[in-house]
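Could someone model 2-keto-D-gluconic acid with this protein?
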Amino acid sequence: MAEVRPRVWVSQPLFADIVERLREHFDVIDTAQVTQHGAAAIAVALAGSDGALVTLNDPIGAAEVAGAGRLRAIANVGVGYNNLDVPALTRARIVVTNTPDVLTETTADFGFALMMAAARRITEGERWLREGQWRQWSFETLLGGDLHGSTLAILGMGRIGQGIARRAAGFDMRVLYHNRSRLPDDVERDCRAQYVDFDTLLAQADHLLLVLPYSSQVHHLVDAAALAKMKPTATLTNIARGGLVDEAALADALSAGRLAAAGLDVFEGEPAVNPRLLALRNVVLTPHIASASLATRRAMVSLAVDNLIAALGFGPDAGRPPTPVNADQLKR
Ligand code: 8YV
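Reply:
Sure, complex below.
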């Protein structure tokens, strides 16, 4: 009788040469085009699968896995995994993995770039020039805020936050941070960062950067009240998740001059963007590309493939995926 190979579902096109490695062990059901799968389609794809390689486009919870009796592992391509209901997947005894570390430096680079673009009005200036509005050089055109010597405020001081703090030393910035828990002294020293409470972080920020994981507990953490505590000359940059910011309150603050500028790589309803933000000049908008260098996106897929192979009991790390999310919970 022919051997029955486990089956895995790859939800999006993800570097075919890397995904190819899955075929050594599994039958692979891949996806030729970027697809916004609905809940029913995800449930059907998971129903006959032993594992899945998914991205932030693919929300998966109890309903999607209810009929997936064979499903043992979901490898998310991304460090953030708020698309997955991890408690529900853990209850269903499904291993969840993510892709930390490999994207830290690339994402920190981008956070810095976005913050600089917002503060120094780079995309606004480019648009103005392309619109043919630059008719004469003038001393007071597009005056922005400085990065060097300013106060960088980082909300969420995990790996990416620390990467941004280390970059700030080169710009002679004072670094403040707020985090669920304070970092050990040696890490604070290494990052030259000082822990402050949330309100102090808001009040003292010249440039506030959001780098914390999203969960329902921090939904709209940056709301009208938080924005009102910031300096009108400050900027806000979000490379974490759109749901952290009340976009209507942000648009109010930006249009009223109560905040100088914003840099946003993530949006609450992405890929839809709040039309009020689209209409504002003092916001730099990018389509969730903070980790999108070629090398890093390839490294993310490679790590996710390693995770899936190992989680399904194959390869050199069989049974021990390199970067599990719920290994401790599953042991209980
Ligand atoms: C990914 C991200 O591109 O890693 C994350 O959390 O937001 C991005 O780097 C995205 O998650 C792809 O699924």
